[in-house]
Design brief:
Length: about 325
């Protein structure tokens, strides 16, 4: 009788364990690479779009999250959903807006870094569905865009998108912390250098810094004034040296610098001039750096501990 009860409890928790487990099942290299490419692409989409979710009021009828959410009422897709938006969401947009901001920031961070990929993909399905139910019938919208967003996240959910260029690979005991840290460190240093060049000559603490973006392709890595740019470069350099030298201490330092900068932005955006001249996109990128740096530091520390145990034997 006890065995049956235990077996039932295990079967109930299995889907939850699968959701939180590394998305790093063994598949052909091409499949892993293709899934990782789609994952990063989706991460860049959320990274760009999180920038205009601005507290504390999150916009009004003329713009911002409030305007786009209100399309669910003026151009309904599914009447029960429209009723819920009208009666519960719009009157409390300050509360729901924070939920959207945190959810989309989490999607950007987890998908870009490849951490807890299945959990992020499941969240992405829900967010894509919610957005589609709000704006699919709005003027100049293409409903298929939201079907494709849902489908892309479903594909990631059941893939091995965390097997390549991902923190999930480190969680699964695969991949190289050195390689992941070096690539991320180099990318962040380049982004920071571009921000430094773009902000040169401006006020070092300008409230709105230089936007590091790919033209009008809706790919953005955030805004940074000169101080914010230098902080980004510092985090990237620390991560690069942590990965190259195998230093857990430098990895933790990179994580602390990036996380501190991101939290500073979130505390100021919408309330006062951001000290680093950034947006929620800037904060999400910095949190991504912090997560990768923490993963690299943890992996290096684990390797060092294992070597000590082996030498002790």
């Amino acid at each position: 009788m006890q065995a049956r009860t235990t077996g039932t409890a295990t079967s109930r928790t299995a889907p939850l364990r699968w959701l939180f487990a590394p998305a790093a099942d063994s598949v052909p290299r091409g499949q892993a690479g293709g899934a990782a490419f789609l994952r990063v692409l989706l991460g860049l989409m959320w990274l760009h779009n999180v920038s205009w979710k601005v507290p504390p009021d999150f916009g009004d009828a003329d713009g911002g999250l409030y305007k786009w959410t209100a399309f669910a009422v003026s151009h309904p897709v599914f009447p029960p959903y429209s009723w819920a938006v009208e009666k519960a969401v719009l009157p409390n947009i300050e509360v729901f807006g924070w939920g959207v901001l945190l959810a989309e920031s989490a999607l950007a961070v987890l998908l870009l870094t490849g951490a807890w990929v299945r959990l992020a993909a499941a969240l992405g399905v829900g967010m894509s569905l919610s957005i589609g139910l709000s704006v699919a019938e709005a003027p100049h919208e293409w409903p298929w865009a939201y079907w494709l967003m849902i489908g892309a996240h479903v594909a990631i959910l059941f893939s091995s998108a965390g097997r390549a260029f991902a923190v999930d690979a480190l969680r699964a005991g695969l991949g190289s912390a050195r390689g992941l840290g070096q690539v991320w460190g180099a990318i962040v240093v380049v982004i920071g250098a571009l921000a430094v060049a773009g902000s040169a000559g401006d006020d070092a603490l300008a409230a709105s810094g230089h936007d590091v973006k790919a033209g009008d392709l809706m790919i953005s890595f955030g805004r940074y004034n000169l101080v914010g740019s230098l902080v980004l470069v510092l985090a990237g350099v620390l991560l690069l040296f942590a990965a190259r030298g195998g230093s857990a201490l430098l990895g933790r330092a990179a994580a602390a610098v990036a996380a501190g900068a991101a939290l500073t932005l979130h505390a100021q955006i919408g309330f006062s001039d951001p000290l680093l001249g950034g947006t929620a996109t800037s904060a999400a990128l910095l949190l991504s750096v912090a997560l990768v740096a923490a993963a690299v530091a943890s992996n290096r520390n684990a390797v060092h501990t294992k070597k000590k145990e082996v030498s002790g034997r």
